[in-house]
Prior knowledge:
282 residues
Amino acid sequence: MTTFTIPSESEFIEVEGTSYAYRRFGEKTGVPVVFLVHFRGTMENWDPNMVVPIAKERPVILFDNKGVGETNGQTPATIAEMAQDAGTFIKALGLNQVDILGFSIGGMVAQELALQEGNLIRRIIMAGTGPESGINPELEIFERMNRHGGNAEDALDDFMFFFYRSTETSKSAGMASLQRIINQKKVESSDQVQQAQLKAIANWSQPKSNNDYNWLQNIKHPVLVTNGINDVMVPTKNSYILAEHLPKAQLIIYPESGHGHLFQFPELFAENVNSFLNSTSL
């Protein structure tokens, strides 16, 4: 039996002046699943205990979008431009069809990508994310996201607060996941990435009058929406909105968890993703 691990070294493909860093592994045949990472994350921020079981059943592509991690350039300040860059990267690889797994801001990019490049995408997983003009987090949460300075302990406290619940079960699983991620991390994102992504999220989150979310009807793809029972970063109510208004959506809510549900339950999440991507229904 083949043993898959996330490659420790990146490949690069240059297109339109940007050298995109990526890591491609897993099964050689099947529709590849492209991962779109969370706020400030790089392709090294995926929990291997979640990614590897998915790679056992299909090709997996992790990458850094423009300006992020090992990819050069400036990160754009709109979700639409991030989606354009993701589409450019995918097509540069010569792929005709992919599945998309978008987490947090990556799920916002996935929605835009589905609208821009509908024929390129087969199925979508939207984890811990929300629609444009959805339910915003409490003001103190956004202020904490935008906070500068602090030491490593402050950064750890922020991460655990944003991603996990305060219960011992959630915190313990979260710390174990974080350690797996730290063990593979070599590259961090710049301050420019943080500021551009914060601006993009702020623009995406602006409320609209009489917002009925009807534009979500234009995403015709089968979609798996996932979240924790209490996501403080992208409030869980957003997942219900997505599931209600996307025409081919199904919803999974994980117990005693929050934004980082897919890392708190990496094996179960991978099992759910594989089941959804293998399905011929919807």
